[in-house]
Give the backbone structure.
Amino acid sequence: MAQFVVEKLTYTYPNQKTPALKDISFEIKQGEFILVCGSSGSGKTTLLRQLNKDLLPSGDKVGEVKYLDKSFREIPKLSAISQVGMVFQDPESQIVMDRVSDEIAFSLENIAMEPERIRIRIAELATYFGIDDIINRKIATLSGGQKQLVNLCSVLALRPNVLIFDEPTSRLDPLAAKEFIKMIHLLNQELGLTIIMSEHRLDEVISYADKIIMLDKGEMSFFGKINDFTIYANSNIIAKQYLPKLSVINELLDKQEIPLNVKEVRAMLSGAKISKFIEPKVDEGNEEILLTTTNLTFSYDINEGYVLKDMDLAVKCGDFISLLGANATGKSTLLKTLAGILKPQSGKIKYKNKRIKKKSDLSDIAYVAQNPILHFSKETVREELFSTDDKEYTDSLIKLFELFDVLDHHPYDLSGGQQQKLAIILAMQTKPNLLLLDEPTKGLDPISKESFAKQLKVLNEQGVTIICATHDLDFAAENTNKCIMLFDTQIIYQGNIRDFLADNNYYTTNINLALKRTEPRCISEKDVKLWANQ
Amino acid sequence: MTFGFVDIHPVVKMMYFLLLLTFIMLTPHPVVLIIYLITLSIYLIRLRGIKKYLNNLKFYVFLSLIITLINPIFNQRGRTVLFEVFSRQFTLEALMYGLVMAMTFISIIILFQIFNDVVDSHGFIYVIGKFASKSGFLINMALRYIPLMQSRLKELYEIKSLSIKTKGLRNKIILWGNIIGIIFTWSFEEAVVTADSMESRGYGLTKRTSYLSFKWRPKDYLTLITIFFCSIVIISLLLNGFLSFNIYPRMDQLILDFYHLIGYIFIALISLTPFIVDEKERLKWRNL
């Protein structure tokens, strides 16, 4: 029997003319793992909310959503919340309490469970998920991945049969995201929970999922098994963007079947005859040094040790550098010291051959924080942008970043990608030569990420030097020419990104991993496409 | 590791602080206040170490010196004139009154610092929740926002100080106005998600329970009895007019008779209860 039946669902938000969801029908069986994909604004969140009785928005609804053959209206609230649980995108704002144990107990206290039973459930969950060592910690001291795990536990405390996730990993770094998705897979496999999850990064989840729903402007353009989706994607450009990056390798062999992981690629390539890969020439170009640091040392608190120690860095004019490294290796700290936000304890920073001493020396360096919201203070995008005199220049930036359509929106109502672009335009208004970006691609869907990368390239070609801290190796390999790797307070590597990734055996892109034995110097999708045309 | 008074049942701990706060405010008596100052300091030094203790109190001692000196300047009541400047009388009584106020102030500050170290948020919420469960829940929610807002303010300041000048009062007002504005918009935006998350986890469906619970052990009863016994003695002395000290119009003489002695001893005892509980337990560990 189907668990969820959605029949001809059309939904329009109040005061809107065009429906957010159009004529959607599908069935979900108990224990299935369903992925929901689509670009920002395609209606993913709206659809997920229709599956949760407590979050049904007001508005016009035609068609029906049935849970276990009952209409949502017939299910009492108390049993609804213990049937369907939901984890949201932002790990921070869905937290209610101060401590981990309080947060897990929150939902149980709400349904007036006896204290003894609540304590048993907390112990049970903490032991199963291995968070017993942080159970008394304040949530503020946890990492993003741990916070999201606490949110999951709090929802699981009610023992739901269905879990709904709204882009749960988009605010996490790739490693934490991988861990979290494994946990969801475990819940699906071991406990048989039905999982419905919207996600941008399908690379990790696609091999765990059973079926996929693709939304396009509120319409369901695809619903079916993963295998069928790969076939569908062969003829659909938008769907293709959601396949794992390494699936592009099938272009080398002119094959119809699409590989989804490293193992499948290697099996496909073994024995196949392919021409040699001629790597694109690197334009050495400008040798002029823009910025150097010598013996840069920084520590937030001397008792906790150094974050950066005796760091020497050299950035040439026109470089597009990706700043790589695990969490808490000092990527953000390095960017902040270069931007003049943090004062290093010792060491020199030289910019354009002048030592930086005053704040006014820094007007030529722009910095965009990881959270673009920090940069906004006005009611509309237009007010935000046109406080400067140079309207023409601002106009050209808006054109470049394609923000004309949203000028009258509130900055908070923009999608993640648009917010990031707006923050960059704001930073670029002083016409800086050096742009420092902190994780700009976090949480972007593949389509907006690609357009964003192209736009950054245009800025770079206009002569703006960019240093960009990122966890996204695919983005780095595709777009940047140099990389800096931080490890243990030091710069471990500084130079050409191709040399770096080609030489790595574990820390590299999936495409490179898959091609390691065939052609180790091929690192990105762009390379594979180039190769296929050679 | 928690032990001693920190480990005592939160109801007993709260009772101690409540009673002591009342007694300190009810007895503006110089000797009594000196006893409070000494005994509470002993415990706070044991908790924090002498260096931190002095560091944390520096500012308050300075403040209380000002209180002591300001009272005789503006207050001319009292019979015993010490000296006269510009035909204004400085009286011993006014000085004494300032001193008593200052001592009360510092005693309360020390008491709150001990409270801060001894009572954790769980215990506090547990006790508040016993009387007013909604307020307890609200306080618990609010507790999360203090460090969150602090770190966000810092983050915003870092970024905004890049584009807005930070020197000068006018610039500072513009800068902080800007930051506070962003914090508000941001928090309201987030509150929508928080509300959804609470709703989908069943908030408001029934009357909430609390999973927090603390066991009553013999040492909790013993401490509670000690505190109550001392309180009864002190209260009955107060009701019979002992331990009172009139400053205006003429300062009373300090009396040391049997009843006052009893009073001083029991005041020292109640205020030293946490210290005694701690030391008793320390002794046990040492003897193991």
Observations:
- The longest helix of chain A spans residues 174-190.
